[in-house]
Amino acid sequence: MSVQPIGSPSAIRLRFGPFELNVAERSLSKADRVIPLGGRAYDILLALLENAGDVVPKSELIARAWPDVTVEEGSLRVHLSGLRKTLGDGQFGNKYIANIQGRGYSFIAPVTPLPAACDSGDASSGLSNLPPALGRMVGRNNVVLEIRRLLQTEHRLITILGAGGIGKTTVALSVAHGALADFPGSVFFVDLSIVTDKEQVIGAVASAVGLAPQLVDSREALLNFLRARRALVVLDSCEHLVERTAEIADYIFQNTSDVYVLATSRETLRVPGERVLHLCPLDCPPEQPRPTASEVLAYPAARLFAERVSARRGSFSLSDDEAPMVAEICRKLDGIALAIELAAGRAAVFGVRSTVARLGSRLDLLKSGRRTATPRHQTLKATLDWSHDHLSELERIVLRRVAIFIGHFSLEAACTVAEQEGISRSEIEGAIEKLVNKSLVVTWPSYRRMLYRLLDTTRSYALEKLAASGEHNWVAACHASYLSRSLDGTRSNLFDLEPGQSLADAIQHYLGDIRAALDWAFGPDGNEGAAIRMAAAASQLLLGKSLFMECRDWMEKAIDRIGTDCDPRDQMEIHASLALSLMFTAGNSERVRDAFNSALVFAEQREDAYQQLRLFSGLSMYLHRTIDAAGSLEVARRAESVASKTGNPEDAALVDSMLGSAYYMLADHVRAPKYLERALHGAPASRRFNATQYLFDLRTTSLFNLTRSHWFAGNLDRASSYAARAVEEAEKSDHPIALCRALILTMPLYFWVDDLGQAERNLSALELTSEKYSLEPFRAVALGLRGRYLVRVGQTADGMCHLRNSLDKLQALRYEMLVTDFVSELAISLAKQNEPAEALALIDGSIATQIGSKRPLHLPALLLAKGSALLSGEPQQRDLAMASFEEAMTLAGQQSALSFELRAGLELARLWMDRGQIRKAHGLVGAVYGRFTEGFETPDLVSARRLLEQTRVRTRRAG
Questions:
Q1: What phi and psi values does residue 57 have, to the nearest 5 degrees?
Q2: Residue 414: what pLDDT?
Q3: Residue 27: strand pairing partners
Q4: List of residues 6+ apart from 334 with CB closer than 8 A
């Protein structure tokens, strides 16, 4: 707890352990004996006491003890070591000052301010009946100070509201002890947990203030006693007798002028003048990869855990290895102080790792606790039993049934699982309201409606009650049915996001419930119909979350169970989701094509234009990955026929994107950009990628295809601009597939223009994203791109190894994108390493594959690579190299691939110059260079200008 600032008359003396510090006299004593203490050590101790329970940074302690001097941390450590020795810190189990790694120091023992006007014996010898404070608080200092401030500003009726075990009594006692100076001898604590009858409440209050049994009216006697003094009455644990307690609190409040009431309850008193202070769970460390001990200990829930382990074990220093586990414990226990303390007790005996492993059964783990606490606080189960025992039968029924929800749930959802004959919707709504009022259900305001949830510890307890009731299977069936209906009803717009909300955050609220419903539906208590409906409904959520492996597993299980009577729409969704998840986890097998085609049959039978276009988009992506240009154009035209009937501009934009991609693969760099540009204009720039609508991101697909088409066509500045936009929009799409595709298909441009810095940055992003989401095809491509990069920076052997491995993996995955790039790079490297035969065999094989499959797009690049490989061989192969460059230039010209035409022309011109054909070389390069309108600072155009200048000079000299 924090103490009053220096100068406050209520904080002149501070007691901790056997010590007493006199602020006015700047002295420290123990058993009436003054303890010698230097001035700086005294300043350090006082700074720690003033912030007891909080971490005081080292810089603040140094500034306090050495206000006008600059000193090193070593001086602080020396004085703290001496101070600890003076206090006997660590001896006989006494601990006062804790070093919070990386942050500072904290005073961890209880501190009690004593009034200035009397000695410590007088403070407790009056009428006050306060029990000892319940140990040192962590993370509640601001709350205590806020309540003290309210008391000092004439707020005379305050209720501390919160769930069981959250620390209401601890805070109330801390406030009460700190208020002894303001209410000398008149701070009274009333433990209502031991009162079972509402008629006994007034007697309990009278007894707490020291009144003997009265023959006259107890209310009047209590009032006469309190009117004569300034007093604070603490009414602890009011919830089970809340109406009677509220009546008495209001009676005292209305009929006295200087008596203050501080109540703790899981339900508000709801009387005039009541000020409610919600006691929230302790802040917990958020989920993050590998947090350090100092990062975790910055949160009070983790500090409480560490300090309680230390108190039980004698010493405990949280390591970086254990820090993520402690963070997980705190999160799983919802920041509930009692639960964390009990878990810390187990960790002191069994270790942190064992404790986190056993948290699956929270209540089993937390059934033993503090012997000195009141019975309801000794274990978490006892705390929850206390709340449960004071619920109505209807409230118990609703509580155990809504426990089936793992995450948030709406009022409608609660009614679905709780409603039955004899229990109406209005009764359920009333029960939910009462459970919220009693702090057993937590409200969670959302963008459009109020949501609710149970804290994990409460839910674990309620689930035990559900299992004992014999209703679990029936409620689980209701739960699965509700979820499948809800998801099915919003398939076209599943993730209607709140402003600023990420897709991952929106989905996360549903994911736990979806998984639980799937487990039940496919388990021994489920049934075929429920399993198929649930799998179909869940598929879009799993795709939206990029859980491709999980989606694939569930869809394969569902297909094994599909019967003839299954809803065709569900079958369609299952086959489509299997196709997409297979494509990104197992490559481009025929199973993918078959699954898409099976789904399309159902969509066409239903004449469902929406689903047909969605499936065409997925099939188009598959064909793009396998470089099936003719098939891609055929699918795009089928989609065009469907979209023409919908009249939807976004459908038209989708078709334009598909047509543009197909024409790009057909090496038509005139028509491709026209369709792709039109697709961009028709697709809203602000829209997020929604896997439930189309199966690829329309905008990023258009952008990276525009990048490549403009690059091929020689529009290099536009290509660079589109490449940057493609990655930027893919990052905003909040979907890893869109990002990986954008990175993969724009990165070759950076290799072409020798921007290795940007290539490395994008490659690192690709490697991280594909690894995180287990996207095997993209990991294989990243391996090849890393090989290209290594070759370019001079690490040829490593680069070639990467390229070989990538090509092997891509062949197994039937993923054709960038294969020709990797073949070209590897072949040239082999030739330079004096392996010409292998180089030519590799590249001739790839050329034959492209010609046999009618894929003209990459032939100019392969012929360029073949010419370069031949140049690295025997001198007599120069004529063959020249022929390759001439063929590459001719094909590039036919495709309007100006960039490749120039590069082939430069290679050919250099060979002609070596033979003295200067004018011919000048004319060849000049004619191609003159057709460029941009990109003049890129390497090939710079080389072209230099070559033209060289040929001019040599021509003039020769002439």
A1: -60, 150
A2: 93
A3: 22
A4: 281, 284, 455, 456, 457
Which is higher by pLDDT, 522 or 132?
522
Q: Which residues contact 259 (CB under 8 A, 6 or more apart)?
A: 156, 226, 227, 229, 230, 231, 232, 233, 252, 253
Strand pairing category for 450-453 and 157-161: unpaired
Looking at the chain, the whole-number percentage of residues with pLDDT higher than 70 is 89
* Top-confidence residue, 936 or 424: 936
pLDDT of the residue at 117: 42
Give the angle subtended at the CA of 203 by the CAs of 200 and 205, to the nearest 5°.
110
The answer to whether residues 543 and 577 touch, using CB atoms and an 8 Å cutoff, is yes
Length of the chain: 959
Q: How far, in Å, CA of 873 to CA of 379, rounded?
A: 81
- Nearest CA-CA partner of 39 in 27, 55, 52: 27
Which amino acid is present at 135?
G
Cβ atoms of 577 and 553 closer than 8 Å: no
- Spatial contact of 302 and 341, defined as CB atoms under 8 Å apart: no
Helix, strand, coil % in the chain, rounded to nearest 5: 65, 5, 30
User: Which pLDDT score is estimated for 552?
Assistant: 93
Q: How far apart are CA 140 and CA 137, in angstroms?
A: 6
Q: Is 113 helix (H, G, I), strand (E, B) or coil?
A: strand
Task: Match 């609190």 to its residue by tokens.
Answer: 249
Buried b (16+ CB within 10 A) or exposed e, 809-827: bbeebbbbbbbbbbbbbbb
DSSP state of 139: S
Judging by DSSP bridges, how do beta strands 33-35 and 259-265 pair with one another? unpaired
Instruction: Give the CA-trace dihedral at 636, 637, 643, 647, to 10 degrees.
Output: 120
Which pLDDT score is estimated for 959? 64
Distance from C-alpha of 20 to C-alpha of 414, rounded to nearest angstrom: 55
Asked whether residue 376 carries a pLDDT value surpassing 60, the answer given is no
Using one digit for the tens of pLDDT, what is the confidence trace for 564-583? 888 999 999 999 899 888 88
Q: Are 619 and 638 in contact (CB under 8 A)?
A: no
User: Residues 6 or more apart from 527 whose CB is under 8 A from it?
Assistant: 521
Question: Is the CB of residue 858 less than 8 Å from the CB of residue 868?
Answer: no
User: Of 52-56, 513-517, 550-554, which range is least confident?
Assistant: 52-56
- Rounded to the nearest 10°, the torsion over CA 213, 216, 222, 226 is -120
Query: What is the Cβ-side half-sphere exposure of residue 731, based on CA atoms within 13 angstroms?
Result: 9
Residue 905 is which amino acid? G
DSSP per-residue string spanning 398-410:
HHHHHTT-SS-B-
Q: Which residues, including other chains, have CB under 8 Å from residue 894's CB and lie 6 or more apart?
A: none
Strands (E) in 313-419, as ranges, are none
Label residues 665-677 b or e (16+ Cβ within 10 Å = b).
Answer: bbbbbeebbebbb
pLDDT band at 90 (very low <50, low <70, confident <90, very high): confident
Write the pLDDT tens digit of every residue in 469-487.
Answer: 999 999 999 999 999 988 8
CB 232 within 8 A of CB 151: yes
**CA–CA separation, 759 vs 763, rounded Å?**
6
Q: Which alpha helices (DSSP H) does 683-775 contain, by range?
A: 698-713, 716-732, 736-752, 756-772
CA angle 179, 263, 217 (to 5 degrees): 100
Cβ pair 443, 450 in contact under 8 A: yes
Tell how far CA 959 is from the center of its chain: 73
What residues does 452 pair with on adjacent strands?
409, 443
**pLDDT score at 65:** 84
Let me know: does 186 contact 127? Beta carbons within 8 Å: yes
Q: Convert 458-502 into a string of H (helix), E (strand) and C (coil).
A: HHHHHHHHHHHHCCHHHHHHHHHHHHHHHHHHCHHHCCCCCCCCC
d(CA 40, CA 240): 51
> Which residue in this structure is represented by tokens 């200035």?
116
Kindly tell me if the per-residue pLDDT of 839 is higher than 90: yes
Question: Are the CB atoms for 238 and 201 separated by under 8 Å?
Answer: no
